[in-house]
Amino acid sequence: MSILKVVEILADSKKSWEDATASAVKKASKSINNIKSAYVQSQSVVVTAGKVSSYRVNVKITFEVK
Questions:
Q1: How many structural domains compose the chain?
Q2: CB 17 within 8 A of CB 55
Q3: pLDDT, tens digit, 9 for 90 and up, residues 1-38
Q4: What is the distance between the alpha carbons of residues 5 and 9, in angstroms, rounded to a whole number?
Q5: Could you count the other beta carbons within 10 Å of the beta carbon of residue 50?
Q6: Which parts of 1-66 fold into alpha helices (H)?
Q7: Which residue range forms the structural domain that includes residue 46?
Q8: Cα–Cα distance measured from residue 13 to residue 56, given in angstroms and rounded to the nearest whole number
Q9: What is the value of pTM for the model shown?
Q10: CA distances from 36 to 16, 25, 44, 50, 51 (A)
Q11: Which residue spans within the chain are E strands per DSSP?
Q12: CB count, 10 Å around CB of 55?
């Protein structure tokens, strides 16, 4: 039997939601081992002067505890 734990991470990017998600996983992997999955719970954007200035994601990272 495996024990899995979930942490929630907020990340943003100037490029895209995909880049924000990749950034969240990359940052989490620096301090968390055995990451098994990432679930994008929500997406949003920041609008500045009528234009999208950054993309935000709320990501749930699942990892195995040993």
A1: 1
A2: yes
A3: 889 999 999 999 999 999 999 999 999 999 999 999 99
A4: 13
A5: 5
A6: 17-29
A7: 3-65
A8: 7
A9: 0.87
A10: 23, 10, 24, 38, 35
A11: 3-13, 35-48, 51-65
A12: 20
